[in-house]
Design brief:
Blueprint lengths: L1 H8 L1 H11 L6 E5 L3 H16 L10 H8 L5 E4 L8 H10 L10 E5 L7 H13 L4 E7 L7 H4 L3 E4 L12 H12 L3 H12 L4 H20 L5 H7 L4 H19 L4 H22 L1
Parallel strand pairs: 1-4, 1-5, 2-3, 3-4
Helix pairs in contact: 1-3, 2-3, 3-4, 5-6, 8-10, 9-13, 10-11, 10-12, 12-13
The chain binds zinc ion.
């Protein structure tokens, strides 16, 4: 989760954490960012912080895992059906706001791109933002503050955040190789064909990092759209749950490498598992 880690280390996130630590958590935030992706990911990081059983976030506990995988029952993300936040979304929030959280301390409503919402939908929400139960938190994100209703702005704490989109990764030859591999790896026969190259000791770690990078991008493509068409296409082949599991498998492979496990063995195992996880989750779709 390289990007999330970057967010967790950022100045604006540290600021937010200080508020949490001092019990000065606001019940509604407006996250302002230069691009949609940064705002959405920042909200996800805030949700992790608030829901984590160890308050870190740890990425390991039940709450962290379910937030990352996108199925934590106490984290509701809007707009739910269309790309624009509509009156129906406001109604859904109003209906849900009084139900107690099921497994976390908080119930969190994330509204992505509130700057694209209809005026009616925003208006409908005003009273709820004001009168919601104590453990309810609203996280709005926007790129264009001028397009958010003043009455919404005045009910939120504004957080201006850094830009997290420009990841310093380069399309190295390892990246190209691994990306092609993920695109073309359809059967275990394929895997055996490629895993020797993947496992070469001099590039193995670079291949693993490229793989990690690709799956993180796929995860973000699921949250919002990626700017890279190729990433969006590949993301269609995996469910969020599969991507989350595969990210964990890659981390495990890195640990095995650190523990001097034979790279051929790690590569074979990892690639076969990726294939398996992908198919199993696609079957459940
Ligand atoms: Zn946790």
């Amino acid at each position: 989760m390289e990007i999330l880690k970057k967010i967790l280390e950022s100045k604006s996130f540290k600021n937010f954490e200080t508020f949490v630590k001092n019990n000065k958590l606001f019940h509604a935030y407006l996250i302002l960012s230069e691009n949609e992706f940064s705002g959405k990911m920042f909200c996800k990081a805030m949700a992790l912080k608030l829901m984590c059983e160890t308050n870190t976030p740890c990425f390991e506990c039940k709450n962290c895992k379910s937030v990352l995988a996108g199925f934590n029952p106490d984290l509701l993300i809007y707009p739910q059906e269309k790309s624009t936040f509509l009156v129906g979304d406001s109604n859904s929030i109003i209906e849900n706001v009084d139900t107690k959280p099921m497994q976390s301390r908080y119930k969190i409503f994330v509204v992505n791109n509130i700057d694209n919402a209809t005026v009616q939908a925003e208006n409908k929400l005003l009273k709820t933002i004001e009168d919601s139960p104590k453990n309810v938190i609203f996280l709005f994100n926007a790129v264009n503050k001028n397009k958010v209703l003043q009455t919404i702005i005045s009910r939120t704490q504004i957080l201006e955040i850094e830009n997290f989109e420009n990841l310093d990764f380069k399309k190295t030859s390892e990246y190209e190789f691994v990306f092609d591999l993920m695109k073309n790896m359809k059967s275990s026969k394929n895997v055996i064909k490629f895993s020797g190259k993947f496992a070469q000791k001099s590039v193995f770690l670079k291949n693993l990092l490229a793989l990690q990078n690709i799956f993180e991008q796929l995860l973000f493509a699921k949250v919002g759209k990626s700017n890279e068409m190729e990433i969006n296409l590949l993301a269609n082949e995996f469910t969020v749950e599969a991507i989350t599991e595969i990210c964990a498998l890659i981390t495990l492979a890195q640990k095995q490498f650190d523990a001097n496990v034979n790279t051929n063995l790690i590569a074979d195992n990892l690639l076969i598992k990726i294939l398996e996880v992908k198919y199993l989750w696609n079957l459940k779709k």
